[in-house]
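Hi R.,

As promised, here are both runs. First protein below:
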Amino acid sequence: MSGTVGRNARMAWIGALLLATGACTPLDDLAVFVFGRSMRDSRSFDPYENTIAPPENSVPFASGNNTPGPGRLNTGQPEPGLMPAPFAQADLFSPVVQNLPNPVPPDPASLERGEVLFNRFCAVCHGAAGVGAQANIIEKFPLLIGYNLSGPVVAGFTDGYIYGIMRIGRGLMPPYGHQISHFDRWNIVNYIRVLQGQAGNTPLGAGAE
């Protein structure tokens, strides 16, 4: 037993000596040559760092779980014509997206759901009151100020345009279509309109029903 302990101790000392003297560097260089990287180069990523959008024309994992209506359980495929056709960022200013009708009335249930989702997905960059300069992310990234969603500029956007930006993203904002479901995006739109009204800005609300 004592011989085993002594042998393990010697091996540990030899390993420490190799590390201290840099003798393992040739092995790392060989690993880089063969595999393109080594265990010494093992950086980690923070949440939402260097996010990658889903591949073009891919089918979301939850696509089969689209409900046939707000507040209804999924009993099969969505009702025909209920979901907007796929569109790209180039279509955001087209009449197809600009005039998308909001199928969710801004009733108390929608606004309650919209507030929960807004605080979960949007407030970190745009602020709980829709003011980007008041967002929590500013404490860590002072220059990363999001759009004022409760301001007069966004109040002049149509419901369809706000929905479209959430679905496919724009500029620094990544797409959230794979995280926020169809009807929940409209719930958030309805809640953003409330924030605009609270800030003294009259929402355009074009396309809302």
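And here is the second one, sequence first, then its structure tokens:
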Amino acid sequence: MKISERRAGNRTEVSASTEMSLMEHLDELRNRLFKVVVAYALCCGVAWYLYSHILAMLIEPLARLPVADQILQGGQLIYTAPTEAFVIRLKVTAFAGMVLALPVMMWQLWRFVTPGLHAHERKYALPFVIVSVVLFAAGVAVAFVSLPKALEVLAGFAGSELVLLPRAADYLSFVLILIAAFGFSFEFPIILLGLTLVGVLSSRKLRDARKIAWVVILILAAVITPTQDPITLMIMAIPLGLLYEGTVIAARLMKR
């Protein structure tokens, strides 16, 4: 038991807090990971059942291209190996399961770090989970908005003499990487706010680093986006920059 004293004027406040041992931390981590794995397995089961709907949603940006009739064979993608269909289903199911299990993952993460926070900081648990999910969903939405234009730009480099005939595995890998890049990059305000909560950053530091932050955002957007075209880059960079500005405001409202 660790006893800490804080003086406020002539009054001394004595608070008691339990200090967890290394084994208790490891046990807590194991319990949290177990819950995450169970939730992920259940969500993968749901994604396996909804596979056809998820696949149709992933193909939809390709179907919106002007030359979609030439690209898609009867509105469908092709695969060229007997085992490829099973691998594709596993890949799509694993990714969709992760997306569906994200709220549980973020909640378990917060619960794991909660013992190291003060009582007034623990009230941010529910907003933390909700904002994390909303930001990831916003990133996915932006990815779907940018996909048709990005595909059109990339296909345009080939000229009229060549026709895009993507294999299902190649196309879906491209789409899933793009979605993951947008979804997880939109989570960076949560990281910044977490650092402000523990005192590593402050709203003043974030304001002072504004110009550097915008440059870093542009560089990261150029590196993260697999299409490497300026349109997709700006579609990612501008929302990330606005999210950074929103993080500064949120840090000020939290008086950090």
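A quick note on the second one: The CA atoms of residues 36 and 104 lie 7 Å apart. Let me know what you think.

Best,
J.
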